[in-house]
Amino acid sequence: MIELAIDFETANARRDSACAVGVAEVFQPEAPIFRRLIRPEPAEFSPFCVAVHGIRAADVAHAPTFAGIWPDLSRRLAGAVLLAHNASFDSSVLTACLTAAGLPVPAIRFICTVELARAAFPDLRSHKLNIVAHHLGIPLNHHEAGSDAAACAAIGQHVSMMVGAGSVAEAAEKLGIGRDRPRAARPPSASFRPGLPMPTRRVDGQRFVVTGTLAACSRTDAARAIKMAGGRFQTYVTQDTDWLIVGLSPGQTKLTAAHARQQRYGRLHMATEAEFLAMLGINPA
To answer: Tell me: the pLDDT tens digits for 25-45?
Structure first.
């Protein structure tokens, strides 16, 4: 069985806007990495995505479309199990690009190395690709598709060797990835963890993004508090983001995107966790 790691970068929020792809073979770190730039149709690049991966419309002006690279890419993927770090994203990009190009979508098994890393390294503060790669000493040029794919492949190989498995699929089986696992019961009406009061101030219409680890509450709690105070929680920094809440060990990607937005639009504000809670009128003590 062939196991490959794949990574897509996108030009904008649309899943069918792939602008780069990288494919690396698991257990074969010396094998050449498949790297291709892709010209999305239309070639519309959001400032946020450019801030993340650095690819611009001019860089892909003469690159093939997804349909143009698919014959070569499909030959490499044929019969393989695919690894991806946050597989739901990369699998949805692949499906969306194939659908947009009018091509059939093959049945491909994906294994998510985020889930694999969570099961293998539960004490890590985060299981983002750069954090896991740093923990394992894996070199990474983050958000370069080929480098991301190679790091994903190395994570799969490392976890497989750690649990004594001959393949990543076997490691996933040993770690229970993909199986229903018991979950702790939640309190009947726990919108917030015990002791975290309800918000007493309104932030109607304002949009918030969180980066890093919050000390007083989980990110889910923060999202619920924002919603109940009339605001909107966003996963990523976009053109209409109003606030970036900066916790412990913040992610460089969101900080970079926030600085780029400040320079271009001059509207985004940054706040500490304490300032954020005060903004909502929440005293976690």
So the answer is: 999 989 999 999 999 999 999
- In whole angstroms, give the CA distance from residue 61 to residue 37: 10
- Whether 179 maps to a domain, the answer reads no
> Residues 229, 153: one domain?
no
In angstroms, what is the C-alpha Rg of the chain? Answer: 20
Containing domain of residue 251, as a range? 207-279
Q: How many CA atoms lie within 13 A of 18 on its CB side?
A: 32
Q: What is the pLDDT of residues 102-150, one digit of tens each?
A: 999 999 999 999 999 999 999 888 899 999 999 999 999 999 999 999 9
Cα(109)–Cα(254) distance, rounded to whole angstroms?
30
Q: Which residue has the tokens 């990543």?
A: 168
Write the DSSP assignment of 195-256 as a string of letters. Answer: T-PPP-S--TT-EEEEESB-SSS-HHHHHHHHHHTT-EEESS--TT--EEEE-BS--HHHHH
- Rounded to two decimals, the pTM is 0.65
Query: How many domains does the chain divide into?
Result: 2
